[in-house]
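TL;DR need structure tokens for one chain.
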Amino acid sequence: MAISSLLGIAQRALLANETALGVVGNNIANVNTPGYTREVPDLESDPSIVSPQGVLIGTGVHVAAVRQVIDPLLEKRLLGAETSRREQGALRDQLSALAGALNELDQPSLGDSVNGFFDAADALARNPSGTAERETLLGRARALADELQRRSGVVATLQRGADDAYVAATTRANDALAQIADLNRAITAAEAGGQRANDLRDRRRTAVADLAGVVGVQTVETADGALTVSAANGAVLVDGGGVVHQLAVRKQVVGLDGQALHEAGLADASGNFIAVPGTFAHGELAALARVRDSDLVGASGQLDGFASAIITEVNRVQTNGGAGAVDLDGGSTAAVPLFGGTDAKTITVLLTGADAGRRIGAALSAEPGDNQNALALADLRTTALGALGATTFSGFLAGLTGQVGESAAQARDGAQAAEALQQQLQNQRESFSGVNLNEELTNLLRYQRAFQASAEAINVGNQVLDELMQLVR
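>> reply
TL;DR here they are.
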């Protein structure tokens, strides 16, 4: 009886240590697998039995479970950090693109176009009867109008790009929701026997992190291993094996390019749109919506205000406030404005044709050499305008460029801080839940020695049985 017990104990020990070696080998194999969580075998003694002599004796060991080494609190902090990282990263990318579109370093710059126009006005004031100076002024006016139109178009394109990214983000979120629901069903089925489906849980954890990057979420694990996922405002997105609310988009206000922009919401069971702005207060969607609906619209509005001031002030001088200046042929310019349009998108030069330059009102009288109106046009360069916040044209552009650049710099700092926090938490997770090769090699040797000792116990039991058989013969 004792010999058979020894063989049974050794056999179970062999199986337990073989399983433990497999767990260690799996850890080592996945040392570079993203999202992998280190596993450990939970060894547990088998129930004791009463020997024929009435003594309780052990019956061996078994692997009760293969457990993931994980810190739930740290995992929740990582989800929040991922939401912040993706939100700040989207802000950085979008605002950096806006700052690049409005910067004054690239050529041609808007500031250079403005200065070029007023330089041409100065030249005309020095020679009011010069046809070359008049044609140069018109050329600089067209260059200024083209640059304003180009900048306006670039900002509109950035807004359309942000809206496209907004729609794409909702699609990615829905993919993650479906994946989480599928994995919930698979985990519930796999863990029905009491064991944990660690590989499926790692995949679900990755899917939840992807979702959290788009829209901040909260998670609660149920008793059967499924995960209930809710938005920041409490709206349930996934419950068990089903998606309760998908994200939906609908067309709303018209964008800068004349096409509709999208608004994200939730879809009910019938597919109807539910507007719930609080659901999208954090994450990539929040950042894209903010830049698209606020920063880009604001920048476009300031460009429009600048263009409107250019149109109004230059035309006021050109027409002499409606009273009319005098062109090169002695005609009145009362009904001959230089610029047309109302904003940066529509600004254009109205004076065209072979004799267009002759229709510029450089004088206020028919006296030869009269340059009063050309001087008034040149003086606009240094005039502080109420429409521009009591600043000059150059001052307004500098303020606009500085404001956008500062916002982009703040976004870069925010993104850097969010990435640093996320990396710090990730490092903490790696130190706690990641695979340490030195530790795994130690475990490998430990379980190997235990396996060898169990094999030796079987060998000893076998030798004792052989000796008993010889005695019987």
